[in-house]
Amino acid sequence: MSFLDHLEELRWHLIKSTMAIMILATVAFIFKDIIFDVIIFGPKKADFPTYRFLCKSAQAIGFDSFCFSELPFRVQSRTMAGQFSAHIWTSITAGFILAFPYVIYEFWKFVSPGLHKNERSNARGFIIVASLLFFLGVLFGYYVVTPLSINFLGTYQVSEQVFNDFDLSSYIGLVRACALSSGLIFQLPIIIFFLTKIGLVTPQFLRKYRKFALVIVLIVSAVITPPDIASQVIVAIPVLILYEVSIFISARIIKKQNKKAKAHG
């Protein structure tokens, strides 16, 4: 295929992916009450599962952290189109999350013809694994990162004379950023898989820079979570586990490549 033919092929894959996202976004738009009252504003409520778990855990060791009846802030919309815009963009975000497996499938259909037959068979479970990791990441971001961030930022005050009134777009932006960023971070093993396949990354490289990766993970955890050690560790542990899994995946790929090279040599 020529370069223009490849662009035409890519265009159709993008169109199909966009259509899938918009169809599911329309469904999310219709179910507004579930999307907003249950999902988006769930981490604002005292009975959110994460707060209940953390409250019971804190009480078990003699503390009363995360035990509250109501978070001391309000969410408001201060622009004429604020609520409608939030409804539209939140629906599109929900559509993208729900359509992620299909988007990955379309991406795979575009990339796979350029791979050898054995490479396609080795990556047979790519769509399932990538989708599973993405959904796990989104759930982790929603149930762990989001409530920790909302609890800290929603209760933080520089003075008792200042009351927290958060704009609707700011609140939704925090929830969206926590969920989507975690979903993308959980794609690390998939990224390492492909980087190893094309020779840009080796397990030796990943082991050598493990300490730097640890520092980066802790810095990112400190940025997206409240400034306490417990919250940072809770967020950092899964990412570090993913990094170790990535090293294992990279080592397996290199081992198979070396074995194949010896067989042909």
From TrEMBL:
The chain crosses the membrane at residues 21-42, 86-105, 126-145, 174-200, 212-229, 235-254. The keyword Transmembrane applies. Its main location: membrane. GO terms for biological process: intracellular protein transmembrane transport; protein transport by the Tat complex. One of its GO terms (molecular function) is proton motive force dependent protein transmembrane transporter activity. It is found in: Cell membrane; Membrane. One of its GO terms (cellular component) is TAT protein transport complex. It is a multi-pass membrane protein. Keywords: Cell membrane, Membrane, Protein transport, Translocation, Transmembrane, Transmembrane helix, Transport. Belongs to the TatC family. Forms a complex with TatA. Part of the twin-arginine translocation (Tat) system that transports large folded proteins containing a characteristic twin-arginine motif in their signal peptide across membranes. This is Sec-independent protein translocase protein TatC. It comes from Halomarinibacterium sedimenti. The lineage of its organism: Bacteria, Pseudomonadati, Bacteroidota, Flavobacteriia, Flavobacteriales.
